[in-house]
Amino acid sequence: MATLNPHPIRINIIGSPMVGQQVEVKVLIGHPMETGYRLGDGGNERIPKNIIDKVTIRLNQEIVLQAELGTGIAANPLFSIFVTVPSGAAMISVDWEDDQGVKGRAEKLLVST
């Protein structure tokens, strides 16, 4: 099994988090998303397939997005979702796993104003 977070994950909150209101959560995962069809520099050998299979985004451990991805997704996938801000502090967490068993995880605190 590979190490945790070999690729960067950015979580951004767009808007002012006020209780009961919606804010946009943008998640950017740095990942090559190789389809297995591209040729390497020499032009003779294919770059091995390496794509993210699963992405899960949670708000306080409740799943708000769960996706199974395929080869049609571009490198460095970006996800954008809207969540309703709960009272008090809340944790946004992102977990992903690629087809080679590499996993990544990131968290960000969502604090209401």
Task: Describe the protein's architecture and organization.
By secondary structure, the chain is mainly beta. The chain is built from no helices and 7 strands. It has strands at residues 9-14, 22-29, 52-59, 62-68, 78-84, 89-98, 103-111. The protein is elongated, with a radius of gyration of 16 Å. The model has no long low-confidence stretch (mean pLDDT 91).
Kindly state the mean pLDDT as a whole number?
91
- Classify the beta-strand content into a percent band: over 45%
Taking all Cα atoms into account, the compactness measure Rg is: 16 Å
Give the number of helices: 0
Largest beta-sheet details:
4 strands, antiparallel
The percent of residues in helical segments reads: under 10%
What is the terminal-to-terminal distance?
A: 40 Å
Give a quick precis of the structure:
This protein has strands spanning 9-14, 22-29, 52-59, 62-68, 78-84, 89-98, 103-111. The protein has 113 residues and is mainly beta. It has a four-stranded antiparallel beta sheet with strand order 4-3-6-7, with no helix packed on it. It has a three-stranded antiparallel beta sheet with strand order 1-2-5, with no helix packed on it.
Write out key terms for the chains shown.
3-stranded antiparallel β-sheet, 4-stranded antiparallel β-sheet, mainly beta, 49% strand
Fold topology:
Layout: E1 9-14, E2 22-29, E3 52-59, E4 62-68, E5 78-84, E6 89-98, E7 103-111
Antiparallel strand pairs: 1-2, 2-5, 3-4, 3-6, 6-7
